[in-house]
C-alpha cells in the first residue's frame, strides 16, 4: 500500500509499505480522507513538531476518516463497510493522573498520537491507504455525515474543547483572534455552543472570508489597520503569535477570559502582558481534546457545516504539493485535504 512518509526535514515520500492485518481487538480501515495539520507541515519542513523530533521515518496524519475493511478477532459492535473516524490518542500506560486533572486524558504525560514523533518508536499516522487501529479508537460516523466531513471531526474536537474551557459561554460575546483552520472551527464551535456574537480577526482577507462562512457575525482585517473590538467577554487566541498577545489582552474585558488555543513557541519571545494583571483576566490554556470528538460527531449530525473550511483537495500521490499549499500563506488555503483512496486501494 502507499503511505505518506516523512524521512527528515524537507523529505516526504510516497512509500510502499505492507498492507497491515488487524490484530485481535483491532479493525483495518481503508482510509479515504486526511486533513493536513500544522504539525504535519512542521515535520515536513523542520523534521520536528514542537519538542518532538524525528528519529526515524514517520507516516503523517491524525485527521482521518475511512471505512472498515476488516475486523480483528474479538471486535464487536462494528461492521465491514462502516464509515468511521479515529480518536488519534492512546494512553501508553495505566498510570493514574493526579486528582487535579482526573479525567483529562489529554494531559497524560505519555500518549501515543497518530502521526507523532513524541515517543520512540514513533506512532504512524493515517495518511496511508490502509491502517490497523484499536477498535476503542474508532468512532462510527452518524448517518448523513460523509468521510470528508468525518476527517474534520478531530480539528473540530480541538475547537469544541477550547470552547468548553469556558463553561458559561452561552449568551456571551466572543472574539477569535486568528482565523486559520482551528480559529475558523472555533468560530463555528462558539456559535454552536450558543455565543451571542462571534467576531473573527486576522491579518489576511482569505481566512476572514472562511470565518464569515463558518458563522462569524463580523470580521476584523488587521492588515488594513482595523482594530480589535474592546471589552469582549471571552477571547480565543488562535494565532499562536506572541506579538498578538498585547492587543488581545487589551481586547478582553476586565474580569474576562482569554483562552489560548494557538500553540505558543517553546522559546523566549517578547509579549506585552501588563493587562493580564491590571484587568484581572483569566488566561486559560487549551490542549488537544479529551472525548470531544464524540461531541464533534454530534455537531456534524446536528447539521453544523464545516465544509467552508476546506479550500483544497489533493490525491495522496501529491502529498508534498498539498503540504506546500498548506504551508504557503499566499495560497489562500485553510484546511487542505488528501484523498487517501487510490485506484489500487479502491480495488482492495
UniProtKB/TrEMBL annotation:
In this chain the Enoyl reductase (ER) domain maps to: 8-338
Q: Name one GO molecular function term.
A: oxidoreductase activity
Q: Name one Pfam family in it.
A: ADH_zinc_N
Q: Keywords for this entry?
A: Metal-binding, Oxidoreductase, Zinc
> Highest taxon of the source?
Bacteria
Co-factor(s): Zn(2+)
Q: Tell whether Metal-binding is among the UniProt keywords.
A: yes
| SMART domains, per the entry | PKS_ER
Claim: Ribosomal protein is one of the keywords in the record? no
Q: State the family it belongs to.
A: Belongs to the zinc-containing alcohol dehydrogenase family.
Q: Under which name does UniProt file this protein? A: L-idonate 5-dehydrogenase
Organism of origin: Streptomyces phyllanthi
